[in-house]
Request: fold
Amino acid sequence: MQTKRVKCPNCQVILDVTNSKEEEVKQITCPNCKAVLQVKFPPKQAPLEAQTYYAPQIQPSADSGATQLTGSSDGATQLVSLKEMPKESNACLVFDVKSYPLEEGQNIVGRKATTSKATIQIETDDRYMSRQHCAITVTTLPDGTKKAVLSNYQNKNQTTVDGLEIETGDAIRLVDGNHITMGHTTVVFKL
Reply:
């Protein structure tokens, strides 16, 4: 159901016209001056469908399967792996021989600071790494496999995955061994 606000050209009264039958042109009578008006509505659009475009292979790996870069019409980029993560693995980030486990759901990753609100706080002095730098969302798929997706959080500093810069709106599917660089700090994604 669509509603459109129009002004009667005869008496200048403002009318709210409801199109409950989803007509392209609805004929109404102005209640004030009794003029017959035709109100045009845009045709109902079908819901948008997601499309995946596969780019050439960029980083094949014998142990993790092929990795491909995909894009969508809004310019967002997604890195996906053709091989799923193992079902019974615990995802974590490794920095300077210390392991930072990732929980199911959204994990906010950032630099450790007294004012940081990140759920995963990396111990580094790198001021180019934001206190809330990126988000890694870990989910379990219906078949039991784990999926981890990285996206920029509310930061102005650079994030890269294996050298590929992550723009606002991008979502990168992580695989074992990905190198994530936040500012000048690099962590390794492990399963």
